[in-house]
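C-alpha cells as discussed.
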C-alpha cells in the first residue's frame, strides 16, 4: 500500500490536502477555505498539517492567512509525482514504500491481483532487489527504484522491445535532467562516465499468443554514494559524476513522461522510433566486443539489433550471430 500520512480518525484522504498545497505552493490558503472545501474541522486540518511536517514538509502557518507550503522533502510520494507529471497511462495507481524487499516482486503480486496498465511501484530503499541472472542489486536511500506494470497489446515475442524502449527513456531522461552524457550498453545497462548508473530488469507473464503483463524494473543510482566492494570501479551515481545532488523527482517525472510517450507510440505505430533512438545512444554498435553467454564465450563486432531487439554480431569468420542474452564487454 502507499504510505499513509493521515490519521485514521480524519475523513480527509491522505492525498487531498497535500495535492491542494502542492498545486498552490508558495501561496497561503485559509483554514476556513480548506475546511469548507473538504468538509472537515480546523482541528482535522491541523492534524494533517502536522503529519506532513513530520515527514519533512515545511509548511508555514499564520492565524490570519492560513497555511503555505514552502518546501517539500526529498521523497517520491504519489502526490508529488502526480503534481509534477502530466500522464495519461502511467501512474494512474502508485504504490509507494519507504522500504521494501523488491519492487518487481511487489509488482508481480499486484499484477496478479489485476491492477491496471501503467501501475507504478516505487520504493525509497530495497533490501532484496535483484538484477539480471539473479544478481543482487544494491538499492540504498537516494536512488530511484521502481517497477512499472504494463499490459500491452503486443504478442509475447515483442516483449524484449520494452527493455529497449525503457533504456532509451532512461538515457534521454538522464541527459535532459542532468546534462550528463549517458549511453546504453546492450542489453539493459545505462552507463555514464564509463560506469553503470542504471539497470533494467524485464519480466513477463504470458500465454502462447498473448501477454498477461510485463513488469519493468528500473534502478538508477542517483544520489547514493556507497557501493559494495564488488561494485566499486564498476558502478557510479549521477551525484558522483555531477558533484552535486540531483533532483530525483525531476528525473523521475522526465523518465515517466518519455516512457509513456514511447509506450503509446509503440502500441499505435510500432517500435521504429525507439529503435532509431536506441541505435544513436548505444555504446556497442560498431565496436569489437566479448559476449559471455550461459554456455559459451565469443568475440565479434556489434553491427546492429534486429527487428526483435536481438544484438547482431559479426564474428571473426564473417558469420552474423544473433545474440538474445548474455553479458557484453568492449574489447
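Sequence:
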Amino acid at each position: 500500500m502507499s504510505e499513509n500520512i493521515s490519521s485514521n480518525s480524519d475523513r480527509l484522504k491522505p492525498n487531498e490536502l497535500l495535492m491542494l498545497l502542492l498545486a498552490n505552493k508558495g501561496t497561503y490558503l485559509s483554514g476556513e477555505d480548506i475546511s469548507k472545501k473538504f468538509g472537515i474541522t480546523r482541528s482535522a486540518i491541523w492534524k494533517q498539517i502536522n503529519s506532513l511536517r513530520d515527514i519533512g514538509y515545511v509548511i508555514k502557518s499564520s492565524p490570519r492567512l492560513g497555511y503555505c507550503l514552502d518546501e517539500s522533502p526529498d521523497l517520491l510520494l504519489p502526490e508529488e509525482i502526480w503534481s509534477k507529471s502530466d500522464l495519461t497511462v502511467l501512474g494512474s495507481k502508485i504504490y509507494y514504500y519507504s522500504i521494501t524487499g523488491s519492487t518487481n516482486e511487489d509488482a508481480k503480486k499486484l499484477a496478479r491481483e489485476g491492477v491496471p496498465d501503467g501501475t507504478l511501484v516505487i520504493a525509497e530503499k530495497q533490501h532484496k532487489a535483484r538484477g539480471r541472472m539473479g544478481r543482487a542489486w544494491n538499492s540504498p536511500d537516494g536512488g530511484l527504484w521502481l517497477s512499472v506494470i504494463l499490459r500491452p497489446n503486443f504478442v509475447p515475442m515483442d516483449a524484449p522491445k520494452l527493455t529497449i524502449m525503457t533504456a532509451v527513456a532512461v538515457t534521454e531522461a538522464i541527459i535532459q535532467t542532468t546534462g550528463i552524457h549517458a549511453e546504453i550498453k546492450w542489453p539493459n545497462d545505462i552507463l555514464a562516465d564509463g560506469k553503470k548508473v542504471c539497470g533494467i530488469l524485464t519480466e513477463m507473464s504470458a500465454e502462447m499468443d498473448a501477454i498477461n503483463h510485463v513488469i519493468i524494473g528500473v534502478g538508477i543510482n542517483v544520489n547514493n554514494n556507497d557501493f559494495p566492494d564488488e561494485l566499486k570501479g564498476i558502478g557510479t551515481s549521477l551525484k558522483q559524476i555531477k558533484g552535486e545532488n540531483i533532483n530525483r523527482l525531476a528525473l523521475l517525472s522526465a523518465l515517466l513522461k518519455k516512457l509513456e510517450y514511447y509506450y503509446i507510440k509503440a502500441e499505435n505505430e510500432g517500435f521504429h522510433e525507439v529503435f532509431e533512438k536506441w541505435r544513436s545512444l548505444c555504446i556497442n554498435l560498431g565496436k569489437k566486443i566479448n559476449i559471455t553467454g550461459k554456455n559459451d564465450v565469443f568475440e565479434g563486432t556489434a553491427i546492429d539489433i534486429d527487428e526483435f531487439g536481438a544484438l547482431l554480431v559479426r564474428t571473426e569468420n564473417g558469420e552474423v550471430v544473433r545474440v538474445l542474452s548474455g553479458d557484453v564487454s568492449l574489447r
